[in-house]
Amino acid sequence: MDIPVLEIESEVILRPVSRRILPEVMESYYEDPEAAKAALPWLKEGEKARSQIADLMIDLEMHKEGNSIHFWAIHSSEDNSFVGLVGLGDELQLAASAYNLGYWVRRDWRRKGIARACVDAIFKWQSARTEHSLIEITVHPHNEAGLAVCKSICKKWKGLAVEGFVPIEIDGRTIPHVLHLVQLNRGD
Q1: Contact in structure between 134 and 110 (CB atoms under 8 Å)
Q2: What would the mean pLDDT of 14-36 be, rounded to a whole number?
Q3: 172-182, pLDDT tens digit by residue?
Q4: How confident is residue 153, by pLDDT bands cut at 50, 70 and 90?
Q5: What is the chain's alpha carbon radius of gyration, rounded to the nearest angstrom?
Q6: At 58, is the secondary structure helix, strand, or coil?
Q7: What is the maximum span of the chain, computed from C-alpha positions, in angstroms?
């Protein structure tokens, strides 16, 4: 199933990820590497990040016609500038889960409800195409902005926090994360 373009009732549009946006993604990375690392904790520093991000863009583009990963580039409706990335991936903590949710929004676009609006559109799309989907959202416990977005998503979509922390392996280290689960049902 091809990943569709999703119209958002805000200032952005979602388009399937393409490697053509690599220059814009790299510009975003260099503008705020700490935020990129929070969204993509496996990223190395500096120039190594470029090859990792390039590999990611190619991998996501290759999966756009499959059913295991669904990722979109967020673009401004006004001038088509790159705003961020959002999608459903396959880095799962629980065997029962279908996807994990990931998002990264550029600094100038944060605190405008962009991530939440994009997630709403993706969850509506996912609910229309499948009977049930358990979606994981893992957030580092010190990522206050990420936790706030996660709580907002869970409030709207009736998600819940899993008690305690889940261990996530990053660069050979185990880092505790907070895990939230959202069960999407057809028609949600």
Answers
A1: no
A2: 92
A3: 888 899 999 99
A4: very high
A5: 16
A6: helix
A7: 44
Residue 1: pLDDT band (50, 70, 90) is: low
What span, in angstroms and rounded, lies between the C-alpha atoms of 188 and 183? 9
Under 8 Å CB-to-CB from 42, ≥6 apart: which residues?
Answer: 52, 170, 171
Nearest to 92 by CA among 19, 33, 169, 155: 169
What tokens appear for 117 in the block? 């609006």
* Of 14, 177, 39, the residue nearest 106 (C-alpha): 39
Token pair recorded at residue 140: 């580092």
> Structure tokens of 16?
């399937």
Question: Which among 75, 67, 73 has a CA at the least distance from the CA of 19?
Answer: 73
Spatial contact of 109 and 8, defined as CB atoms under 8 Å apart: no
Using CA atoms, how far apart are residues 158 and 131, in angstroms rounded to an integer? Answer: 17
Q: What is the pTM of this model?
A: 0.91
Strands 132-139 and 160-161: unpaired
